[in-house]
Amino acid sequence: MNLKLIVIFIVFTGILAVSCSSKKENKQTDKKTETTQKEKLPDTKSITNTGSLLDKYDIQSESPQILKLSSDLMEISGITFTNDNRLFAHGDEYGDIYELNPENGKLVKMFSLGDIKVIKGDFEDIAFVNDRFFLVESKGKLYEFTEGQSGVFMEYKTYKTFLNSGNNVEGLCYDPETNSLLLACKDLGGEGYGKDKTVYSFSLDKMSLDEKPRFVIPNKKIKNNTEEGKFNPSGIARNPVSGTFFIIAARGNTIIELSKEGELLNQADLPESVHKQAEGIAFSSDGTLYISDEGRGGTPVIAVYPLKK
After folding, report:
1. Is 35 helix (H, G, I), strand (E, B) or coil?
2. What is the pTM of this model?
3. CATH code of the domain occupying 54-305
4. Labelling 5: which of 21, 141, 186, 229 has CA 20 to 30 A away?
5. Residues 108-143: pLDDT tens digits?
6. Nearest CA to 96 among 139, 136, 153, 138?
7. Is residue 13 a contact partner of residue 19, using CB atoms and an 8 Å limit?
8. Contact 90, 97 (CB under 8 A)
9. 88, 162, 75: which is closest to 124 by C-alpha?
10. Pairing of strands 123-129, 142-145
């Protein structure tokens, strides 16, 4: 082997060694990054085989963190979180939207739906979808609007559905996997469903309500282990960690969890000493559970339940 070939061989060997070392370091860096990202996510290893996450919240606690709210929200109904983890709420009779501090419940700002005069209605729940809000009335009518500055009146669009006061829609949430809003009926589930409760899907692609319910919750599967022996949904929310759906019922003081397919996974009682009238439910991005209660002559509150590690 002549001198020229020897030099080429040595240079090539050196380049190969550096390349392998670089790839090894990149793999180690990627592995470290992946580990760091995993550490930031809630630990869901102890989720049951059924996929339930409800047991990871201390629902039975009679002393959870309580956010005391202004008397303006005496009849607080729905609550929701934006993508940047800001908390919004609304009352029962007027189209006033409140931004609240999720740490202490203090009012950040309030804006209204309407033009000069705020609109009135039987508003039951609110949901945030990317850059817009949706508000639902008990008769199934939806209001779409964007966020406003404090004290401003905002324009809105409305969408009618075939649901009515007999169905008494009280729950609303967004499902990103199907790009739809889910509407939970408090009373009648629809023709042929008897005492079973239903949740309908409003497609945001078609801007229309599907004729058949997304979920049907069999009455016989709900444990009648409360004083009222009832289950009348008053709020629904999607858990961002598990992708399952949590539904609360003020009448019955109950919370249940449904799978993405609508299977009943779990159920728990809401302590009446904490929840006088649970009307709204929402999750922050890390899975922390928030439940709002009307004041009923006292102080309106939001109870906070962190996801257990």
Report:
1. helix
2. 0.84
3. 2.120.10.30
4. 21
5. 999 999 998 999 999 999 999 999 999 999 999 999
6. 153
7. no
8. yes
9. 75
10. unpaired
Q: Which two tokens stand for residue 111?
A: 């804006």
Residue (of 200, 204, 73) closest to 131 by Cα position: 204
CA torsion 295→86→78→66, rounded to 10°?
Answer: -30
Alpha helices in 100-185 (DSSP H): none
Token pair of 224 as six digits: 């009648």
Task: Name the residue among 210, 160, 220 with its Cα closest to residue 190.
Answer: 210
Q: What does the alpha-carbon distance between residue 228 and residue 60 come to, in Å, rounded to a whole number?
A: 18
Domain boundaries, the chain: 1-40, 54-305
**Contact assessment for residue 237 and residue 283, using Cβ atoms and an 8 Å cutoff:** yes
Distance CA 8, CA 115 (A): 80
Amino acid at 77: S
Backbone φ, ψ for residue 244 (5° rounding): -85, 170
For 239, phi then psi, to 5°, come to -80, 120
Question: Which residue, 123, 126, 173, is CA-closest to 145?
Answer: 126
Nearest-CA neighbor of 231 among 263, 278, 191? Answer: 278
User: Which residues are CB-neighbours of 160 under 8 A, at least 6 positions away?
Assistant: 140, 141
Give SS3 for 107: strand
Cβ neighbour number for residue 264 with a 10 Å cutoff: 17
Token pair for 287: 């899975």
Whether 197 shows a pLDDT value over 60: the answer reads yes
Task: Please choose, from the candidates 282, 191, 186, the residue with its C-alpha nearest in 3D space to the C-alpha of residue 239.
Answer: 282
- Give the residue from 232, 239, 237, 236 showing the smallest Cα distance to 254: 232
